[in-house]
Amino acid sequence: MYAAGAAEAVVFYCARILEAILKDSHLLFFGEDPNPRSKKLNLADIEQKLFDYNLLKQNRYYWAKGLRLLGNDVRHTLRRIKPEEADCALVFLEFILVWYFCEFPIGPRQNTIYKGQARVERAGGNLLPDLAWTLDSSRLNPQKLKVVFGPQEQDYFKKFSANFTFPLLLIDIFIAISDHTSASRLIEGLASYAYKQKGALRDRFFQLHGLLLSREERLDEAMQLLENEHARQRARSERLDIETTGILAGVYKRIWKQVQDEGYLRRSHETYRQGWRDSKNTYLGINAATTALWLNIPLEAQQIAKEVRGILEKRRKMIQQKTDSRYDLNYWDMVTMAEACLLTHDVKNALELYRLAFEKNKNQVEDLNVTRQQLNSLVERLSFTAPDAETLRGL
After folding, report:
1. How far is residue 372's CA from residue 56's CA, in Å, rounded to a whole number?
2. What is the C-alpha separation between 91 and 87, in angstroms, rounded?
3. Smallest Cα–Cα separation from 209: which of 263, 266, 171, 167?
4. Mean pLDDT value of segment 64-83
5. What percent of the chain shows pLDDT beyond 70?
């Protein structure tokens, strides 16, 4: 297929292999659903669940998402697929094969998927697949990412316009590492192409644009863009995107902190709470709980926090049991469970979880700062003994 130039077929079968791998990984770890009437998870749900359980690591998660988005465009015949996209699909799939056969804790656990126990050498010369290899081998090194703004910037942007999946991954990564300048350069350079996209690619571009505007404190612009996206999604489907919901609720919260208008806090809480009720996503849940606390609804805050804690305790127990304690919750889940403990007045377990999360992730300086700011705001609002409050502030 590849030699014959059948780009759509290459992407289609790469995406089908990805689907088979993710479904098998989900089955190996979680087993069969005992309830035959349960709603079947789609591929995006499975991908997210494997990531939530810290099984699909960050860089592998990006490649899986990229291949899934490419596959969606082929399945729904949304546009013509370029040969360069077939190249990227093959490279993305290769990374997922390495993850499944060599890294997944319950999988075959081979030393390598390559003949001769070494990674296959590549001739190079194809910008985007070469960039993907560089990023994966460097574990998404921020300096390696910036190669797209070097001497070959025009060449990269030309490729990006034809292969929209790849720049979406880069924007996502740049925002995650707080390189807002680079994310903005990509968004501005690709805006004219975004309106030509359809389905998940278009949705993801505007979602990321809204997130960037929020992080840059351009909150009115972020709110307008995300409210439009939220309304458009609602008109198109009963199921709203969890991430769009969370970003929009976060924008309302940031505006409230700036202007101290309780109406924005209520909008934030209602958006988080509705998303939590629809999805039982723990990020939405813990924010629904904390905004309830700030609205002086302590019983609701405690009830939601109790549910969030229960979900994460069950998740953590399963991860540790299935991996012989080699794996644990990721950073954000661990501090979310710690926050849920605080909201239910369990200071002892909160302290243990915060200390463990901070120790294991000491290099994530910005994430630690965000967590400490949130922790201090909770200490000010909740009633703790003086020694407990001092200990929590000193973490």
Report:
1. 27
2. 6
3. 171
4. 79
5. 92
**Average of pLDDT values for 186-191?**
91
Q: What is the dihedral of CA 363, 366, 369, 374, to 10 degrees?
A: -120
| Least confident piece of the model among 97-106, 138-147, 168-177, 253-262 | 138-147
User: CA-CA distances (angstroms) from residue 268 to 18, 111, 320, 328, 347?
Assistant: 36, 48, 34, 30, 27
Terminal Cα distance for the chain, rounded:
57
Which one has a higher pLDDT value, 332 or 80?
A: 332
**Structure confidence at residue 119 (pLDDT):** 53
pLDDT, mean of residues 258-279: 94
Q: Take residue 118 and report the two structure tokens written for it.
A: 């070494």
